[in-house]
Amino acid sequence: MLYPENCLERLGFNEVKQLIHKHCLSPMGQQMVAKMQVMAKFDQINKFLRQTQEFKSILENQEPLQISTFFDIKSLADKIRVEGTYLVEEELHQMYASLQTVFSVLRFFEERAAVYPNLEALFEHLPVEKNILKKIETVLDPKGKIKPNASPALQNIIGDIAKAEQDVRKRMDSIYKQAVSNNWVADGSLTIRDGRMCIPVLAENKRKLKGFVHDESASGQTVYIEPEEVFTLNNKLRDLEFDKRREIIRILIALTTELRPYTPLLLSYHGFLTKLDFVRAKALFAIDVEADMPVLINAAKTRLVNARHPLLYLSFKEDKKTVVPLNIHINEELRIVLVSGPNAGGKSVCMKTVGLLQLMVQSGLLIPVHESSEVGIFDNIFADIGDDQSIESDLSTYSAHLTKMRYFVAHATPKSLVLIDEFGTGTDPQFGGPMAEAVLEVLNNKKARGVITTHYSNLKLFAGNTPGLENASMLFDNDRMKPLYILEIGKPGSSYAFEIAQNIGLQKEVLDLARAKTGTNQNRIDSLLVDLEREKKQIYDTKLNLSNQQNKVKNLVAENEKLKAFLDDNKKILIKEAKLEAQNIIKNANKLVENTIAEIKEKQADKAVTKQLRQNLQQVLVQNQVREDKKPEPVSPLNLNTPIEVGDWVQLKDSETTGQVLEINRDNLVLALGDLRSVLKKNRVFKISNREAKKAAQRNSYTGSVAEAISNFNAELDLRGMRGENALHEVEKYLDKSIMLGFPFVKLIHGKGDGILRKLIRDYLKKYSQVNRVEDEHADRGGDGITYVYFN
User: Fold this and answer.
1) DSSP 531-574
2) Is the pLDDT of residue 348 over 70?
3) Does position 534 have pLDDT exceeding 90, yes or no?
4) 3-state SS string over 58-93?
5) In this structure, how many other beta carbons lie within 10 angstroms of the beta carbon of residue 681?
């Protein structure tokens, strides 16, 4: 229920409807916009909202949905209901174009089944009857004209007409040439008069040419004569034209008769196109105002996040301005928000935004809010906005307000939304304030919801001490004396009457007299509110700065975590490399010892040769020891007196990590450590040369290659189908690589078969010194067809 009747107009809903009306392609869609109503059923509202949201998605994703051409099929269907009537060529062509659009849309959704379920509900169980198109195609050409071969009789008539026209043309040409040679003809050529071909003849020669005068020029000097000889031919041609017209009518009547049984289906197609045009217009408007679908809840409450008044948004968009978003919530505990603050500070816009967005949602329209907003459903929406004084009804401004208050109090329920602008005005404030307070108390007792704007101090005090009511104020910049248009819930706001008057230049003596007349208590209250506003502004700025600082700290912590993870990974990789190098040294040492013993045996313990071999062995062992004990030389720092600049390469002290300087902020450096960014103190790094930086990059690339080899290694080798010798060769290479990369165990798949390959592999593994033990796979997962090899 909406009250009063001009509620939609006062909240701006009629203007929204006009904007949607402009997006409609057809009169049918425009009629639906005009009939659009505010609903109160959750399922119905939810369906309409989701349909609009889905069509908005189609438009934003530039899906190939073409609905640019369709006409009023209903009027055509109503016309063919009557027996004996027929559709003319243009009407049939309109029906054909509209049906093509229908079938194109149906095909679009068929190809995207279940993608747009709510739009698909518009044409659920709607059949595609292409016989209608085929019947029309047999009669009309693509331009909407009757085909010459629409019937055999029409084809014959058209052929006879062509032949008769040719005969008339030949005879006329002959007579015309003769008249020209006799100088009877006026300036000009053959022309048509009353549908007849005539020769323009000079008036003085009109008796020299036998025929019928059809017309004469304005001056009377030229007459247009149809020669007697072609009169009969022209009559025959005229009869053929009548025959053609009668045949075309007969064809159209026959076609209309064939289409008459499809009338109910045509009406269904009409309804589908009308709804589609309506939903499309709503979606286009939603794109214009950057609207989205809020969370719809089946309760009398609302929570708007970053809400914008759609009409104000469009107006500001043209002027390249931005709208300050509104954040407000109304629920069971916070039922009525009492908004106060300076004049022209945005109180009325705040209240109208809540009311208009509520009307839009309950009419199935998307609204310009953040998608996390929650909007409920109200059974009643009451609005007291503007001055409704009436001379005819003998109503003053205050009487009009009281009339509305009486209705609000009588019909208010917990599912009512009450919107009142400048509550209590229109009469003596001494009496208007208490009256407004009484009305507010009754509305609160009835648990009605609402947004009310006021300047009355008694209402602010009442809202601050009454559960269910909440003060709110529009913030004001005390320094620049300008409103911020930001709603702050929890505290009342000052009207800033004196401050605004002083800012616009009102004389000082007037301001002093006004302050003196206002009274000490009122001045004290207003000053207190001004101080509160100033403190709120300072707190708001402080919170904003604190939030920025917290974001910076979070970013720094995240970068430090990345750097720590990067260093930990490098540490693990370096340890693995050291282990691999130690294993290689041990392997080489063992091979050297074995080769030395073998040579001693071959030389049969010759003392000189044995001595020489021992010296060679000792020399190699000493070289390995020296290489192992040799530590990498630390990178020599550059001239410490040279200041670090942007672009220099630096190295962390007590670490081999290097990076390039991106920024310098006092004692802090912003470094690029590979893909990471980190902030370090200057005293934690020293400059290095570009050559040393390249060496460090090469070491890092080697580390990356080892890590890549480990990630690409598969700890499972399939040997099934191989010959014994080839299998052992593959096993040897695979075990060496596994040990080199530091894997604790691997899996060899050799299959069961006769057990020959398994025995060969097991015997080989017994001789491999790095193998600790071997085990069969679990019986459920392959049993003795798979061998697990564990290394020392």
Assistant:
1) HHHHHHHHHHHHHHHHHHHHHHHHHHHHHHHHHHHHHHHHHHHH
2) yes
3) no
4) HHHCCCCCCCCCCCCHHHHHHHHCCCCCCCCHHHHH
5) 10
- The average confidence (pLDDT) of the chain is 82
347 annotated ligand binder: yes
Q: What are phi and psi of 280, to 5 degrees?
A: -60, -45
Q: Where do the structural domains in the chain lie, given as residue ranges?
A: 8-146+257-288, 302-513, 547-629, 649-710, 713-791
CA dist., res. 658 & res. 660, Å (int):
7
The 10 Å Cβ neighbour count of residue 139 is 22
Query: Is 342 annotated for ligand binding?
Result: yes
Question: Where is pLDDT greater, at 248 or 791?
Answer: 248
Helix (H, G, I), strand (E, B) or coil at 681: strand
CA gap 212, 224 in Å, rounded? 8
Q: For residue 84, give the nearest of 256, 245, 248, 262 by alpha carbon.
A: 256
Parallel, antiparallel, or unpaired: how do β-strands 295-296 and 374-375 relate? parallel
How confident is residue 740, by pLDDT bands cut at 50, 70 and 90? low
Distance set, CA 282 to CA 33, 56, 277 (Å): 9, 8, 9
For 8-146+257-288, CATH number? 1.10.1420.10
> Per residue in 94-139, pLDDT tens?
999 999 889 988 888 888 888 899 988 888 788 888 899 999 999 9
Instruction: Specify the amino acid at residue 452.
Output: I
Whether 746 contacts 789, CB under 8 Å: yes
Query: How do residues 275-330 score in pLDDT, each as one tens digit?
Result: 999 999 999 999 999 999 999 999 999 999 999 999 999 999 888 888 899 999 99
Which residues have C-beta within 8 Å of that of residue 77, sequence separation ≥ 6? Answer: 263, 266, 267, 270
Position 527 scores a pLDDT of: 57
Listed in sequence order, the DSSP H helices in 723-790 are 724-740, 756-767
- 713-791 adopts what CATH topology? Ribosomal Protein S8; Chain: A, domain 1 (3.30.1370)
Q: Architecture of 302-513 per CATH?
A: 3-Layer(aba) Sandwich (3.40)
702 has a pLDDT exceeding 50: no
What are the tokens at 171?
Answer: 């005879």
352 is in an annotated binding site: no
pLDDT in tens, 350-389: 999 999 999 999 999 999 999 999 999 999 999 998 765 5
CA distance 626 to 564: 33
- Known binding residue 345? Answer is yes
Q: CB neighbours (10 Å) of residue 679?
A: 16
